[in-house]
Amino acid sequence: MLTVSGLSASYGAIRAVEGVSLDVPAGTFAAVLGSNGAGKSTTLRSIMGLHRPIKGSVKLRGVELSKLPLHRVVRLGMAYVPEGRMVVAPLTVEENLRLSAHAGRGRVAEHLDRVFQLFPRLKERRGQLAGLMSGGEQQMLAIGRAMISGPDMLVLDEPSMGLAPAIVDQVFEAIVGLHRQGQSLLLVEQNAAIALSVVDYAYFMKRGSIVLQGKPSELRNSPEVMEAYLG
Ligand SMILES: Nc1ncnc2c1ncn2[C@@H]1O[C@H](COP(=O)(O)OP(=O)(O)O)[C@@H](O)[C@H]1O
Ligand SMILES: [Mg+2]
What we know:
It is a single chain. Helix content is 38%, strand content 26%. The protein has ten helices and ten strands. The protein has helices at 40-48, 70-75, 93-101, 108-118, 120-124, 135-147, 165-180, 192-196, 216-220, 223-230; strands spanning 2-11, 14-24, 29-33, 55-60, 63-64, 78-81, 153-157, 184-189, 201-206, 209-214. The strands form two sheets. The chain has a six-stranded mixed beta sheet with strand order 6-7-8-3-9-10, with helices on both faces. The chain has a four-stranded antiparallel beta sheet with strand order 2-1-4-5, covered by helices on one side. β1 and β2 form a beta hairpin. The mean pLDDT is 93. The structure holds adenosine-5'-diphosphate (ADP) and magnesium ion (MG).
């Protein structure tokens, strides 16, 4: 359903991503893993239309996205949870959600209900200022804000970043819940151990390129993965 082929992206003369190809079939949960600076975020930003120009092809349901701006990419069914969450601190939970609904695909009331079902905590705290919420709650809000557009494909950049282990587990439970409901997902993570415990398929990036890929069961048996990422 999402097909990336030969994706390359640069910052001026710095080549951050080189020839990345990956597939996320409808209903599957895929991850791009690797160390800091490997090119994971640039890959996601390039897929979403936040990084332009790029080389190669990014297709959702066969529709080419690689020359479209972010708002068109979102309308076509992609939604993005950025690294560091980036909620709007002086707005309430509900205002954050409604603000993003403008960029979405309509049916706001229905999607808002679904977000509140997914995260009852956000419903309880809908009038609370986002900046006063805990890191875990802000991550749930960032995911809710992406789900408000009713996406076909949800992409998440390091949802575990800066959260205590127990909170990371809660956030991943919610993400796994979405997957069980049929949501297609593409996750970027430095935390390979937690990602491999939940995804259907994973890609490992190193210095801008994919160096390894497979199902978690295969990757966990790879000496290379054990040594470099699972220690
Ligand atoms: N805004 C930027 N300007 C210049 N170089 C950047 C910028 N963002 C990232 N890079 C470089 O691109 C490479 C990939 O970065 P990034 O995609 O953020 O990696 P990751 O998300 O895997 O940590 C790194 O070498 C990083 O230093
Ligand atoms: Mg990153």
